[in-house]
């Protein structure tokens, strides 16, 4: 299966057809568009639930675990958000697809640890939803390392990344990070704090770059410092990106996605070059 998303995401791998997805939406237009598009792209047959009762029945009448839910905020029979509360209480990963959006709504959604939210306010809404679904279903292929001496910061970033279905490892210092990188060559992204007691983020980045280039591993630096020059210093040390805390959830996820998308594109180009070289030799 091959997929190219609207933001540049590309996926080439095994079929996603075995994923069980519930679509809680009462609009005939959107249920038809979403169901058709997910079937075309990923061969996924979504289970449509047009009201709260149908959503409850879909869960209760099958022992097969739900991989992901796509839900409107308000459904017939659940006009005050009860459907979302129901899905969250069942620990079902959920993407919100809504036409109602305000800053307060956004804060409430993220506080409930939803996977993502997509607005119905543009012609690309269904395509954006399809990409969000594909990212969640395939993010497990990515192994991310969090490096921070603060247990609270490690826990926060780990929670955010696991919400998006990434595989996550953590290190409390630079020495531990280097050890984990040796043991786990599949780590494709490092998110590291700048200010650490043994090896700071700059030095850690330099040591990583001495053995692994940007075509093999991406590095995002983070810091709570108000020094705006840290980003320049970090990039000069070999980092790929830099963010100042506190950062917005959506921005963090976007930066992570962009770096991993770039890594995949580089690997695809390298693979294509190798294939071409083999053909030329033959």
TrEMBL record:
Report the InterPro entries cross-referenced here. Bact_response_regulator, CheY-like_superfamily, Sig_transdc_resp-reg_receiver
Q: Which UniProt keywords apply?
A: Phosphoprotein, Transcription, Transcription regulation
Q: Output the CDD domains linked to this UniProt entry.
A: REC_2_GGDEF (cd17544)
What Pfam families does the annotation carry? Answer: Response_reg
| 4-aspartylphosphate sites (modified residues) | 193
Q: Which SUPFAM superfamilies match?
A: CheY-like
Q: Which GO terms describe its biological process?
A: phosphorelay signal transduction system
Q: Does the keyword Transcription regulation apply?
A: yes
What are the residue boundaries of the Response regulatory domain, all occurrences included?
Answer: 20-135, 143-260
Cross-referenced Gene3D superfamilies: 3.40.50.2300
* SMART domains reported for this sequence: REC
Task: Answer whether the UniProt record assigns the keyword Transmembrane to this protein.
Answer: no
What PANTHER family would the database entry show? RESPONSE REGULATORY DOMAIN-CONTAINING PROTEIN (PTHR44591:SF3), STRESS RESPONSE REGULATOR PROTEIN 1 (PTHR44591)
Q: What is this protein called?
A: Response regulator
């Amino acid at each position: 299966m091959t997929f190219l998303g609207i933001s540049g995401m590309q996926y080439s791998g095994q079929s996603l057809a075995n994923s069980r997805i519930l679509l809680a939406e009462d609009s005939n237009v959107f249920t038809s568009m979403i169901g058709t598009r997910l079937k075309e792209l990923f061969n996924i047959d979504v289970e449509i639930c047009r009201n709260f009762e149908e959503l409850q029945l879909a869960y209760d009448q099958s022992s097969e675990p739900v991989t992901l839910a796509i839900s409107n905020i308000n459904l017939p029979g659940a006009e005050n958000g009860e459907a979302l509360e129901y899905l969250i209480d069942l620990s079902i990963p959920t993407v919100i697809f809504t036409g109602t959006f305000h800053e307060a709504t956004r804060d409430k959604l993220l506080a409930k640890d939803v996977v993502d939210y997509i607005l119905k306010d543009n012609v690309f809404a269904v395509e954006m939803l399809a990409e969000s679904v594909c990212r969640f279903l395939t993010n497990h292929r990515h192994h991310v390392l969090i490096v921070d001496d603060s247990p609270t910061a490690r826990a926060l970033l780990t929670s955010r990344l696991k919400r998006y279905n990434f595989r996550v490892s953590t290190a409390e210092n630079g020495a531990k990070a280097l050890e984990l990188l040796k043991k786990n060559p599949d780590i494709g992204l490092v998110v590291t704090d700048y200010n650490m007691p043994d090896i700071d983020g700059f030095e850690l980045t330099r040591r990583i770059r001495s053995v692994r280039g940007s075509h093999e591993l991406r590095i995002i630096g983070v810091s709570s410092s108000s020094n705006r020059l840290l980003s320049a210093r970090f990039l000069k040390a070999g980092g790929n990106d830099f963010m100042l805390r506190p950062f917005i959830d959506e921005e963090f996820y976007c930066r992570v996605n962009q770096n991993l998308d770039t890594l995949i594109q580089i690997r695809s180009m390298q693979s294509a070059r190798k294939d071409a070289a083999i053909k030329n030799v033959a």
